Amino acid sequence: MTHSLPDASVHVRDLKKQYAVHEKEPGFMGSLRSFVSRKTKYVEAVRGVSFELAPGEVVGFLGPNGAGKTTTLKMLSGLLHPSDGMARIAGYEPRKRETAFLKQITLVMGQKQQLIWDLPALDSFLVNQAIYEIPDDQYRATMREFTEVLSLEGILKKQVRKLSLGERMKCELAAALLHRPRVLFLDEPTIGLDVNMQESVRAFIRDYNERYDATVILTSHYMADVTALAQRILVIDRGELVFDGDLARLAEQGKGGKTVKLKLREAVSAAHLAHYGHDVKVDGLSAELTVPRAEVSTRAARLLADLDVADLTVEDPPIEAVMAELFGGGEKAGEVKEVVSG
Ligand SMILES: Nc1ncnc2c1ncn2[C@@H]1O[C@H](COP(=O)(O)OP(=O)(O)OP(=O)(O)O)[C@@H](O)[C@H]1O
């Protein structure tokens, strides 16, 4: 399909967001005291993030809880004003929220809904058609396409409140993309969905990206979403970008070594395999063990020389393991500076 569409590139330079949080001590006296001396905390949620995305690029935006992902996406879609720095999306400055900009983007938040609860999804679609001034023929064509790719037949006329979570999420995505935006900010679009539904949502995003050459920034706690869709990964930690590169390079950041998988012709005990590596697992004639990254070739050569091996493969650890190793799986909030203003 050919398009004469505007450039869907994303430029972000030194973007920052500081939240001011006014604190109040508990109880009535606390309320009174807060009239006299208000305690304000500043949360440095995003601390100078820079990156560029080419049109049509799909990136996974990862990081531990509270790292600043949602805050960044809200700034890029113009919902939040940055405290400092610059963003340019498809040639527009998001903070201005110009109509032409809003027609080029969408923000989908898996935990928030935009569909009207008591009406069928179709009614919300018509509202969006009016808001985004979608011509009738384009609306019909997009509806046909989405109905097929997302299997929406039969659910569009049901009250949204009566849909399952997965059905509702499919309608949410359709509503959010009905105006055919070129830049997609997807914040946990598959959260809470079962594995099959996650796969349908992924297939839809992939199809949309290919059809419209859309640029996509995707956050997800399900690494399968990221590995299935993104060529490039951005990792944010405590408000700062700590990694920008492809998945394989991210896997190399882990110190946990590589996984060697073996198919053996003769059974070998786990204790014996422990001479070649750690985290040994044996299941009949299949075994796996972890070996240090720098010694993969020498250990593999020793395994092949010493044992009756039918097949040997070397794999990077799953990306979940790398992320858990990098961030310890713990929660990290933005850094807090305490200031008292009277
Ligand atoms: N409205 C707000 N006021 C004050 N602090 C906020 C506000 N929104 C977010 N924060 C704080 O800013 C930091 C970044 O939050 P953000 O929601 O952007 O992180 P996240 O990476 O999306 O996290 P998660 O993966 O848990 O959704 C956190 O410390 C959070 O508590």
TrEMBL record:
Key words, A-Z: ATP-binding, Nucleotide-binding, Transport
Name of one Pfam family that matches: ABC_tran
A GO term for molecular function: ATP binding
Descriptive protein name: ABC-2 type transport system ATP-binding protein
Occurrences of domain ABC transporter (ranges): 10-263
Keyword ATP-binding annotated: yes
Keyword Nucleotide-binding belongs to the record: yes
SMART domains: AAA
